[in-house]
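Thread: "does anyone have the structure for this chain?"

Original post by V.I.:
We have the sequence but no experimental structure in hand. Need at least a predicted one for the grant figures.
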Amino acid sequence: MREGLRSELARGGVALGTMVFEFNTPGLPRILAAAGADFVLIDLEHTGWGFEGIRPLLAAARAEDVEPLVRVQGSARHLISPALDLGARGVMVPMVDDAIEAERVVRAARFAPDGGRGFGLLYPDQLGGGVGAAIETAEAGTIVILQIETPAGLDHTEEIAATPGVDVLWIGQFDLSVAMGFPGMFDDPRMRAAEDRVLAACGAAGIAAGVLVGSVEDARAMLARGFRMVALGSDIDIYGGAVRDGLDALRSREGPG
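Reply from O.Q.:
Generated one for you, tokens below.
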């Protein structure tokens, strides 16, 4: 078992993984672990899966060397704590606007005295060392990721990054570019400036910056700039791209024998 994702990032390491929007199958963690992914980011914001929809996926991930993270729909406690109770090793919260909201997320994700998460560690393998040990283990492994993808969030980036209990700020290029008036134009200088601000805030706070990228080339560029948590594409893009490339290659060889 590799070092926990939260510990790896806290000591300045890099984490590489991918996002899933379509394939909530129990075999996915096994496939991604074999591929060498550090994490799989499971989306609840846009998929409509719900907690029941991802329960088998989270259960299967417990047996694999890949950490399941869940992007929830917002910062409310009832959206965050259940994902962790079901087995997520961390949560990503979209559209965090300020430090007050960041503190609300931390409170929902962490146990007392740092938060107010209810005790939902119910299984024997979690409780073998007693309640105190179970909480300590859960706290050590629970990663809190906040997305900067609104103008308000960008304006309060430094305070959000400095909120105790936050591990990663993740720049949401799609929503931020839409909100700032240049939808999908990730090469716009204003996006580069926003990314630099997030990177600087994370560096000052001693936490990691994260981003979703569409290619290996983009991933290398982001890593070189200082991003330390990178998701390489989504299941839809990766699967569709692989099938398209294969079929295009086959068709290019078609013709008279």
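V.I.: this helps a lot. The beta strands are 15-20, 39-43, 67-71, 90-93, 143-148, 168-171, 208-213, 229-234.
O.Q.: and The longest strand covers residues 15-20.
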